């Protein structure tokens, strides 16, 4: 006869897999719920970008100029003109009935007042009850109006007047997700949020079942009496399943929706594993603490369900109150979402995610350690098997409703609920605690003191007034002022004499660095003093610095922020007379071929200089 397998990890894991195959609830929790949720969410976000929000236009002017604005709004991708109302009453009725999200009113004599420079206004009214669609419609209409304004002729044939926009033009650039792709922003965060809830509940159901329908003693016996082995073996199958679900999550986002991933995939994979471990451990810990399946599941739902609000996706963490920030810091999902957006969306270097990764790792380790410690305590006190109550005793424990009136039956059932901790927590306490916990991130309601960075390359009284005005606004605060080279003041600086680098250093911050600048016959000589520790910094061409400092550790090359230095540097090219287009085309074709073959990059590399495509 074949000897029975030795107790240990494999025996526990095999026991768990067999149970999951027999228990349909466990199998559905681990596989069915995530697949169903992923399918529903993927279908919901099938149109990842908001398009064709219905708006109503009231054109009281009916002039060629007002028609330009109407056509611009109709061609905007975010909105579509559902109707051309005759007055504002019908337009507002469309908004109230839900037939439109916004109304645009172009007043009478709009063209006349525009030519006369009386600054007529186009009025936009939108339904902000639907917060996201309302803002999207408002932004699309504003962009359309701005685009139409830019196309207006500078001279009007009516009275030879001129129209000119304001003298100060503010350019705005969206750094991440400029298309407002909700698969990139919201679905990317919602999928792991759903999965973390399912992970904790599945683990809680697997552990809690040992206290009800299964045998805690048999579980520990299969592990050879080791609580650590018992816990790892039980959670290992679930860990493998949910890691595959995280891979499916990434496939939906980056495969199905073609959302780019800009960060470190290894770091992101490790963070996903820590997230799964953390919530497997949390679900197990709550069951081991309560030893009651219903009560443990209620606590799991109370903690996990509101976690999305504390993660900082819909409402930024910096605007939350103290309790919300404290509670959010205890949730592993909060740190995983930060790593996810830092890596997948912003493409930050892995070092920038080191702190949240370490906190996530500490939470996962702590939760698993607490669950293992609690199971060890239970195993130590499990000295004898508690006898199963007889069927007759169970029947006697059930309240006898026969012969009772409706009122007496309701009172008896109420007493039963109050006496059962699990049922009471599930029906009564869970909604109350959930209702208290969920609104916490949003109690302050308004965003205040949003940190911003200001780069001031003008250094005039006007630019300083603009910065002070920004800082005085309650909604923002100037956290970083990367406006000057003032950090180098009082330190010895080097530059080649007669170069742009010398001019920049001498003129920076109104000449405050002039006493610190030392001039050299060449940049190479200045770099020699930098290596020797006689200079704090050297300014010069990046190609010179890169070549001379190649392989030298302890130094960093960065782009200066100073007047006269273009952002991104200069592009090198070939100068040809304007009337010799044939030669210019031939030279361009030859250079393009060298670039395609990699010859240009190879030449730069031979001289230890990084080549950047212009």
Topology, element by element:
Layout: H1 9-22, H2 24-44, E1 53-59, H3 64-75, E2 79-84, H4 88-97, E3 102-106, H5 110-115, E4 123-126, H6 131-151, H7 182-208, H8 216-222, H9 227-256, H10 265-290, H11 293-304, H12 307-310, H13 322-329, H14 332-345, H15 354-381, H16 391-397, H17 406-419, H18 421-437, E5 450-454, H19 461-472, E6 476-481, E7 493-496, H20 500-507, E8 517-520, H21 523-531, E9 537-539, H22 542-548, H23 581-597, H24 599-606
Give a quick rundown of the structure.
The chain is 55% helix and 7% strand. With 614 residues, it is α/β, with parallel strands linked by helices.
Descriptive overview:
The protein is α/β, with parallel strands linked by helices and 614 residues long. The protein folds into 5 domains: 9-41 and 180-384 and 406-441, no CATH class; 53-151, abc type-2 transporter like fold, CATH 3.40.1710; 450-481, no CATH class; 489-548, no CATH class; 576-614, no CATH class. It is built from 24 helices and 9 strands. It has helices at residues 9-22, 24-44, 64-75, 88-97, 110-115, 131-151, 182-208, 216-222, 227-256, 265-290, 293-304, 307-310, 322-329, 332-345, 354-381, 391-397, 406-419, 421-437, 461-472, 500-507, 523-531, 542-548, 581-597, 599-606; strands spanning 53-59, 79-84, 102-106, 123-126, 450-454, 476-481, 493-496, 517-520, 537-539. It has a 4-stranded mixed sheet with strand order 2-1-3-4, with helices on both faces. Strand 5, helix 19 and strand 6 form a beta-alpha-beta unit. Helix 1 packs across helix 9 (227-256) and helix 7 (182-208) runs antiparallel to helix 14. The radius of gyration is 34 Å and the shape is globular. The chain starts with 8 loop residues before the first helix and ends in an 8-residue tail after the last helix.
């Amino acid at each position: 006869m074949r000897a029975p397998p030795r107790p240990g990890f494999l025996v526990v894991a095999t026991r768990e897999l067999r149970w999951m195959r027999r228990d349909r609830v466990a199998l559905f929790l681990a596989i069915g719920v995530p697949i169903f949720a992923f399918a529903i969410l993927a279908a919901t976000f099938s149109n990842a970008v908001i398009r064709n929000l219905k708006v109503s236009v009231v054109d009281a002017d009916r002039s060629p100029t007002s028609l330009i604005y109407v056509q611009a709004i109709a061609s905007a991708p975010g909105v579509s003109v559902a109707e051309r109302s005759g007055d504002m009453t019908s337009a507002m009725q469309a908004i109230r009935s839900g037939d439109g999200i916004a109304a645009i009113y172009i007043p009478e004599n709009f063209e006349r007042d525009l030519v006369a420079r009386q600054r007529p206004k186009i009025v936009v009214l939108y339904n902000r009850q639907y917060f996201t669609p309302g803002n999207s419609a408002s932004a699309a209409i504003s962009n359309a109006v701005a685009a139409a304004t830019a196309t207006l002729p500078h001279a009007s044939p009516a009275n030879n007047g001129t129209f000119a926009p304001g003298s100060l033009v503010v350019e705005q650039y969206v750094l991440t997700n400029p298309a407002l792709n909700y698969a990139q922003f919201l679905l990317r965060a919602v999928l792991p949020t759903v999965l973390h809830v399912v992970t904790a509940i599945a683990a809680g159901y697997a552990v809690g079942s040992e206290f009800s329908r299964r045998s805690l003693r048999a579980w520990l016996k299969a592990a050879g009496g080791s609580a650590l082995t018992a816990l790892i073996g039980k959670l290992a199958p679930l860990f493998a399943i949910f890691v595959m679900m995280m891979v499916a999550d990434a496939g939906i986002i980056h495969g199905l929706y073609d959302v780019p991933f800009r960060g470190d995939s290894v770091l992101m994979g490790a963070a996903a594993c820590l997230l799964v471990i953390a919530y497997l451990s949390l679900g197990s810990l709550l069951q081991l603490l309560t030893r009651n399946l219903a009560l443990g599941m209620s606590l799991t739902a109370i903690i996990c369900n509101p976690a999305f609000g504390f993660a900082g996706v819909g409402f930024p963490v910096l605007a939350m109150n103290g309790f919300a920030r404290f509670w959010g810091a205890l949730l592993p999902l909060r740190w995983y979402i930060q790593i996810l957006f830092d890596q997948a969306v912003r493409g930050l270097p892995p070092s920038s995610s080191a702190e949240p990764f370490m906190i996530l790792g500490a939470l996962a380790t702590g939760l698993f350690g607490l669950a293992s410690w609690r199971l060890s305590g239970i195993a130590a006190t499990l000295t004898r098997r508690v006898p199963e109550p007889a069927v007759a005793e169970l029947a006697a424990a059930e309240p006898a409703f026969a012969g009772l009136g409706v009122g007496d039956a309701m009172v008896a059932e109420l007493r039963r609920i109050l006496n059962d901790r699990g049922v009471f927590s599930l029906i009564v306490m869970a909604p109350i605690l959930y209702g208290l916990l969920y609104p916490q991130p949003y109690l302050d309601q308004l965003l205040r003191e949003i940190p911003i960075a200001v780069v001031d390359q003008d250094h005039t009284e006007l630019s300083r007034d603009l910065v002070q005005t920004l800082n005085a606004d309650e909604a923002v605060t100037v956290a970083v002022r990367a406006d000057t080279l003032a950090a180098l003041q009082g330190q010895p600086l080097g530059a080649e004499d007669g170069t742009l680098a010398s001019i920049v250093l001498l003129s920076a911050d109104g000449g405050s660095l002039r006493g610190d600048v030392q001039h050299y016959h060449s940049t190479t000589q200045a770099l020699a003093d930098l290596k020797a520790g006689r200079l704090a910094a050297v300014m010069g061409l990046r190609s010179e610095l890169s070549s001379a400092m190649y392989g030298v550790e302890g130094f960093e090359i960065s782009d200066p922020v100073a007047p006269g230095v273009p952002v991104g540097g200069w592009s090198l090219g070939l100068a040809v007379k304007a009337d010799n287009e044939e030669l210019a085309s031939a030279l361009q074709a030859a250079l393009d071929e060298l670039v395609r073959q990699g010859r240009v990059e190879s030449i730069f590399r031979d001289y230890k200089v990084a080549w950047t495509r212009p």
